[in-house]
Amino acid sequence: MDLWDGVKKGLSTVAPLLANAVLPGSGGVVGSLVSGVLGCDNKPEAITNALANATPEQKVALIKIQNTHEENLVKLATENDKIYLQDVQQARDREIAIVKATGKKDYNLYILAWTVIVGFFLLVYFMMYVTLPEKNIGPVNQLFGALATGFGMVLSYFFGSSKSSKDKTAMLRPK
To answer: Could you tell me the pTM of the whole model?
Structure first.
């Protein structure tokens, strides 16, 4: 989880376009703007706390910033969507390029995907039916979190984002 997720969540209730423009990992320019309005350090924890205790005047100031920069924030959101779609498309293009170059599929991708899926379900089974020693619960929970994330990514790659990404890419292409 990104440290700036709390900022995005808190900001989304006041100024959703500003929240959408908070960059993962750094907060970006929006983090600086928000911390300036709230009078706190430009750090995720400080901004999250300040947002939770923001005065009505501070909330109005954030809305004014959003309204002043609305056009740029919409452009930024559109650009972020394009970057995401390009990333997804590049993954698809990689597979096509490998098949064209070698004449066969990259089986490592499928082996990795199946390993994650089988590992996820095996771990779920063991967590349900096997009593773990107290000292192993933490590491097993960490492994479960990692496998659950990987499981979601595998499903998204093979089933979730292909169709919607293709549709979005078609919509973004100039006519």
So the answer is: 0.49
Whether 47 and 34 have beta carbons less than 8 Å apart is answered as yes
Q: Which two tokens stand for residue 91?
A: 């993954």
Count other C-beta atoms under 10 Å from residue 154's C-beta.
19
Amino acid at 11: L
- What is the enclosing helix (H) or strand (E) of 90? helix 70-102
User: At what angle are helices 5-12 and 28-38 packed, to 10 degrees?
Assistant: 60
Radius of gyration for the chain, computed over Cα atoms and rounded to the nearest angstrom: 22
Q: Render pLDDT for 67-97 as a digit per residue (tens, 0 to 9).
A: 988 888 888 878 877 887 787 777 778 878 8
Going by the DSSP 8-state scheme, the letter that residue 27 receives in this structure is: B
pLDDT digits (tens, 9 = 90+) for 92-123: 788 788 888 888 888 888 899 999 999 999 99
- Contact yes or no for 99/105 (Cβ under 8 A): yes
* Cα gap 58→80, rounded to integer Å: 27
In the chain, where the domains are located? 5-68, 72-172
Check residue 47 and report its DSSP letter.
H
CB 85 within 8 A of CB 53: no
Instruction: Give CA–CA dist 31/20, Å, rounded.
Output: 11
Cα–chain center distance at 28: 16
> Encoding tokens for residue 170?
């078609």
